[in-house]
Design a protein that fits this description.
Layout lengths: L2 E2 L10 H4 L4 H23 L1 H31 L4 H26 L4 H25 L4 E2 L5
Antiparallel strand pairs: 1-2
Helix pairs in contact: 2-3, 2-5, 3-4, 3-5
Length: about 150
């Protein structure tokens, strides 16, 4: 089968960038969330809450960027690396996030509940934006060969 896409094949210049077209919409959606939620949190609950919201949104964006970039890199290098790189990245991120969040929780920081809510909302916003992009993106078309 010949999968006709505009993405450069693995190993070619621009191969990683071509695998990340959804980032424009997802990053924009999270930026809008931050622009609205951080000042709102500061107004309603104070600067500690605003810091928690900013940290939560930032953490989600960083996490998804790391995943997206590592998977795009693996696919652009050799598609056989997708599964091990994706699972390895996920495992490393979960351990780092678990240890980091445990350390923050141990400090008794009062912005932690706001950070938790912001993480949940940012995940929903990123996922919704990604889904919106996926539903609007053109599907690769395959022309069957007349063998």
């Amino acid at each position: 089968m010949d999968f006709s896409t505009d993405a450069p094949p693995a190993g070619q210049p621009g191969a990683i960038r071509a695998r990340l077209p959804y980032l424009r919409l997802t990053l924009t959606a999270c930026a809008v969330l931050a622009v609205v939620a951080v000042p709102l949190a500061a107004l309603l609950r104070g600067p500690t809450s605003a810091a928690g919201v900013a940290a939560g949104v930032g953490l989600v964006v960083a996490s998804y960027l790391i995943s997206g970039l590592s998977v795009a890199w693996a696919d652009a290098l050799n598609p056989r690396l997708l599964m091990p790189v994706g699972l390895g990245t996920y495992g490393i991120k979960i351990v780092i996030l678990g240890v980091g969040m445990s350390a923050v929780a141990a400090t008794g920081w009062s912005g932690l509940p706001d950070m938790g809510v912001a993480i949940i909302v940012a995940v929903v916003v990123w996922t919704g934006a990604h889904l919106t992009w996926a539903l609007r993106a053109p599907l690769p078309y395959t022309q069957p060969r007349g063998d």
